[in-house]
Amino acid sequence: MKCFLMSLLVCFCSCSRYSNNNINDLIASDYCVMLRTIENKYISDMKHKYNAVLAGIGGRMMYEIQDIYLNFHMTRIVDKGEARKIYIDFVSELLARINEDDQIRPHLSHSPYTAKGVSLQLIFFREENVRPLPKNIAIVSMYKGYISYSIWDTSTNVYKEIYEETYDEAIQIVNSPCSF
Hints:
The protein has helices at 2-15, 23-50, 80-100, 167-175, and strands at 53-60, 67-75, 118-125, 139-143, 146-153, 158-166. By secondary structure, it is of the alpha+beta class. β4 and β5 form a beta hairpin. α2 packs antiparallel against α3 (80-100) and α3 packs across α4.
């Protein structure tokens, strides 16, 4: 809990530009607060839906909302197909909430906001803090619209990327009638 509150404090501070009580400071703070309101509801809903625990939050939003960073931990054993479905649900839900909010739209670097502005990471565990077996996905992450899937390599004790695809490719697979 302390870690969450500290990361939230750092994020709020990084959203503001401090320069002798400039009116632009208030504007920057306002859109960061708007984004945090959207994110807080989203985080709560993902916790209820997937038992996902927020492990990190941040972004690039000095003058406008350019990038959003979120990191979640989950106790769940998943293969690539299930990890993909969960991941697409996480990202599409976040994008929908951001794009549906009329107040935040003027503060987005691009509208509609797309997956290229989201850096979201899901870390899966077999049980609390126990890494999955190498046959299961350990991490799914995305940067600039590319999703990567990694396993925990027990022989080297490091995460090893096994597959990469674009966000659009992943959506097509999830939405196809033959998706496994």
